[in-house]
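Customer escalation, tier 2.

The customer says the design service returned an amino acid string that "doesn't look like it belongs to this structure." They asked us to rerun it and document both sides in this ticket. The original structure tokens are below, unchanged.
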């Protein structure tokens, strides 16, 4: 069976794309974690932490992935994942709280 591999946003993915797997505990740098993986994890965390704000959700994601603090690169990656979830209609903010749709 011949499989195809495509590059998407700097990461290699097989075609067809399998389900995104969240890999924790994590020893990777934030640059080595795809936005798609962060989106998947963020959606799961948001569904379990009812009433989270965007800031608390990003802090929790940072902790789950084993980072000591929310540095600039981590903040940018988490904000990209958060924005993509909003664009895709999977989450929205209501009165400052993150709601999974």
């Amino acid at each position: 069976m011949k499989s195809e591999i495509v590059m998407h946003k700097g990461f290699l993915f097989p075609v067809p794309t399998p389900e995104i797997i969240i890999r924790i505990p994590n020893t990777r740098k934030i640059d080595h974690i795809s936005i798609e993986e962060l989106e998947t994890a963020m959606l799961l965390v948001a569904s379990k932490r009812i009433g989270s704000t965007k800031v608390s959700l990003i802090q929790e994601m940072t902790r789950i992935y084993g980072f000591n603090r929310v540095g600039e690169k981590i903040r940018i990656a988490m904000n990209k994942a958060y924005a993509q979830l909003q664009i895709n209609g999977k989450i929205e903010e209501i009165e400052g709280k993150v709601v999974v749709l």
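Tier 2 assessment: The sequence is consistent with the input. The radius of gyration is 14 Å. The domain at 4-100 is CATH 1.10.10 (Arc Repressor Mutant, subunit A). Sent an explanation to the customer and offered a walkthrough call.
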